[in-house]
């Protein structure tokens, strides 16, 4: 039973912005996404939970014409136009040496030692938590009035070679950001019912 503290909830407008009315966009209206907005976006993402506050996600904001041209050969054909016309494409990555920062990020325990020499655990933790952080990025972007087009149709090896060579970062998925053209949306696809995908045990 709850105590007498107030339980805060998001109102209907907020739920619509984040979930019920939000759509995946592939056509974009004119409108720049400036660096100040990208910084604010990261300020929100970093506050959301990751295991042991490991924060393994790294973000490459592909914005310039030259950077977009470098990204183009890495994309599947169906993702090319939507990405080239988006104001920003985020390469959501994970850092395979994220645990080097755990003494700073999780000072309550010797968490770095949990990972040293355990490559499988590093990969699993980095991939899972960067995926979470990429999802947080989508929700934070929507909260800031941006539309999103997440996708996985790209050549990971090419992206890593073009943008991450010489680093310990590895690409996970891409998210186009901008101001979507709602007139170009398809009708919303069906979603499964609770009874089809959930169990209460």
From TrEMBL:
<keyword id="KW-0521">NADP</keyword>
<feature type="domain" description="Nitroreductase">
    <location>
        <begin position="23"/>
        <end position="179"/>
    </location>
</feature>
<dbReference type="Pfam" id="PF00881">
    <property type="entry name" value="Nitroreductase"/>
</dbReference>
<dbReference type="InterPro" id="IPR023936">
    <property type="entry name" value="RutE-like"/>
</dbReference>
<keyword id="KW-0520">NAD</keyword>
<comment type="similarity">
    <text>Belongs to the nitroreductase family. HadB/RutE subfamily.</text>
</comment>
<dbReference type="InterPro" id="IPR029479">
    <property type="entry name" value="Nitroreductase"/>
</dbReference>
<keyword id="KW-0288">FMN</keyword>
<protein>
    <recommendedName>
        <fullName>Putative NADH dehydrogenase/NAD(P)H nitroreductase SAMN05421720_101158</fullName>
        <ecNumber>1.-.-.-</ecNumber>
    </recommendedName>
</protein>
<keyword id="KW-0285">Flavoprotein</keyword>
<dbReference type="InterPro" id="IPR050461">
    <property type="entry name" value="Nitroreductase_HadB/RutE"/>
</dbReference>
<keyword id="KW-0560">Oxidoreductase</keyword>
<dbReference type="InterPro" id="IPR000415">
    <property type="entry name" value="Nitroreductase-like"/>
</dbReference>
<dbReference type="GO" id="GO:0016491">
    <property type="term" value="F:oxidoreductase activity"/>
</dbReference>
């Amino acid at each position: 039973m709850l105590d007498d503290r107030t339980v805060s909830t998001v109102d209907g407008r907020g739920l619509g912005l984040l979930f019920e009315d939000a759509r995946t966009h592939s056509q974009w209206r004119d409108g720049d996404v400036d660096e100040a907005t990208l910084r604010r976006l990261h300020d929100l993402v970093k506050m959301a939970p990751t295991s042991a506050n490991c924060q393994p996600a790294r973000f490459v904001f592909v914005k310039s014409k030259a950077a977009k041209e470098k990204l183009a050969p890495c994309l599947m054909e169906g993702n090319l136009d939507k990405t080239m016309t988006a104001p920003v494409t985020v390469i959501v990555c994970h850092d395979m040496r994220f645990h080097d920062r755990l003494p700073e990020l999780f000072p309550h325990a010797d968490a770095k030692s949990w990972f040293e020499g355990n490559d499988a655990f590093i990969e699993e933790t980095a991939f899972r938590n960067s995926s979470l952080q990429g999802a947080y990025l989508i929700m934070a972007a929507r909260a800031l009035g941006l539309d999103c087009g997440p996708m996985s149709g790209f050549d990971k090896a090419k992206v890593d070679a073009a943008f991450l060579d010489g680093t310990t970062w590895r690409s996970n998925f891409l998210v186009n950001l901008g101001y979507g053209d709602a007139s170009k949306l398809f009708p919303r696809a069906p979603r499964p019912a609770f009874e089809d995908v959930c169990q209460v045990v």
